Amino acid sequence: MVNKIKFCTILRERSLEHKKAITLMLQNELYGQAISILRQELDSMVRVIFLIEEPDFSIREHYVEQTLENVKWTLPNSRSAITDRQMVELSNLLFGWTKSVYKLGCAFIHLSPMSNYRNENPFLNLDEVEIQDIKNHLHNYHGFPLASDLNMDTISPYLNKVFIKVSDNLEAYIESFENDAIGDI
Predict the structure, then answer these.
(1) CA-closest candidate to residue 162, choices 134, 142, 147
(2) Threshold 0.85, pTM exceeds
(3) In the chain, fewer beta carbons within 10 Å around the N or the C end?
(4) 156 CA to centre of own chain
(5) Whole-number Å distance between alpha carbons of 35 and 33
(6) Alpha carbons 174 and 170: distance in angstroms, whole number
(7) Alpha carbon 48 to chain centroid distance?
(8) Where are the domains of the chain?
(9) pLDDT digit string (tens) for 7-55?
(10) Three-state secondary structure readout of the chain
């Protein structure tokens, strides 16, 4: 029980810092950094979703302990790592939007042409299906006009809205996790 409280405290402290940081990044038009912060918030969210979907409380505790020990998550009694991809795929199956946000965030965390967004449209590096997925998600959740091109100028006004949605969902999932919910997302 104490470990779960510590784990949830870490999640909330990280999220609070993200809220402060994304505000600063957006005020200073540091959109790549804002997207990186968004990706980190999403990382917390998919981990909590992964835990909530795990019905075995001893396995949940195993992952929480690994976090507190600063160890990469592995299956119990195994060396097989739980990958970000597995957690993102699970949450994407449940919600249908996390994979595109996560992938976009990764493009800004890792060195890529996306970091050159001040000089070139980074979204031209994506295939048409990815572009349409992002546009549709932005439209469905935040009112992005589907007729607009996808570029940093058109999406930057939506970055804080996306962050708030992820952050609010994260807090709701943390509360569900604290209340021992199983798959009640």
Answers:
(1) 142
(2) yes
(3) N
(4) 17
(5) 5
(6) 6
(7) 11
(8) 2-178
(9) 999 999 999 999 999 999 999 999 999 999 999 999 999 999 999 999 9
(10) CHHHHHHHHHHHHHHHHHHHHHHHHHHCCCHHHHHHHHHHHHHHHHHHHHHHHCCCHHHHHHHHHHHHCCCCCECCCCCCECCHHHHHHHHHHHHCCHHHHHHHHHHHHCCCHHHHCCCCCHHHHCCHHHHHHHHHHHHHHHCCCCCCCCCHHHHHHHHHHHHHHHHHHHHHHHHHHHCCCCCCC
Tokens of 8: 């949830």
As a whole number of angstroms, the distance between CA 24 and CA 133 comes to 28
Q: Quickly tell me which residue has 């807090």 as its tokens.
A: 171
The residue length of the chain stands at 185
